[in-house]
């Protein structure tokens, strides 16, 4: 990302001050004076969290196939994504909010002997995840300020990388750290983020008989802990996965176990919603392509709207 594209410490958030409310009507949030404007007592900004593994990263979503959309300039964006564990090789916003955009390639290790260094994105330009279709659809539907916070790492499992209780858990802790950093940066500007939902695209790495049998309980426990750790007790969790992982033409038995587990969690916890990705186009047996990634994002946006941000307490 070019330095000119960066706004230090969620500086874009100052754009919701009364003199700059024209942003909501179609003008860019990048306006003269946005850095120095003192925001009035504004409502918290809705923030959608995006997390998971490679289809949340958008590993095979070619940025050259991403259609332009003026809404991107009006949507706040904070991200960290790449290979596990979270480290200096990730693609990041460097702790500075910007506008919605595809993410550039990080600086992944070139030593293929290092475990699980996939290269952040397949395309040397970078890539994008479901946040693009999600945020664009929500903005065009609701026409109000919106923030996206994305923290995702490829090839990661709930049983290890996202295990909030350990062992492992590096990605869970990395996610919580990004949320806290973004929240603190917003607070430094006198603003606050209201976490409206988490979009969770993951499950392929747990698609084996042993881990799949534990998946629903482990994922539910992770969300319960996450709600406490980020102080969002009623946070809706919208969950989905590439159901054709490993077989582009049918759902394999192991993937069916994960789909069933996600549906079971959604049936148990009224704050969880299963989002079906059937029919979203694929680049290969592992990942959605650019069009498929956009479509998955739009489906999550529909789920957010349908849920109406009023998740009742768990059953």
Describe this structure in words.
The protein is of the alpha/beta class. It has a single domain, classed as Rossmann fold. It is built from 6 helices and 8 strands; from the N terminus they run βαβββαβαβαβαβα. Strands 1, 2, 3, 4, 5, 6, 7 and 8 form an 8-stranded mixed β-sheet that branches. The longest helix has 21 residues, at 209-229.
Label this structure with key terms.
14% strand, alpha/beta, 29% helix, eight-stranded mixed sheet, 315 residues, Rossmann fold
- CATH level 4 superfamily: SGNH hydrolase
CATH level 1 class label:
Alpha Beta
List the secondary-structure elements in sequence, H or E: EHEEEHEHEHEHEH
**Percentage of residues assigned to helices:** 25-40%
Largest beta-sheet details: 8 strands, mixed
Which secondary structure elements does this structure contain, and how are they paired or packed?
Elements: E1 45-52, H1 54-57, E2 75-82, E3 91-92, E4 98-99, H2 131-142, E5 146-153, H3 170-188, E6 193-201, H4 209-229, E7 237-240, H5 253-268, E8 272-274, H6 290-307
Parallel strand pairs: 1-5, 1-6, 2-5, 6-7, 7-8
Antiparallel strand pairs: 2-3, 2-4
Helix pairs in contact: 2-6, 4-5
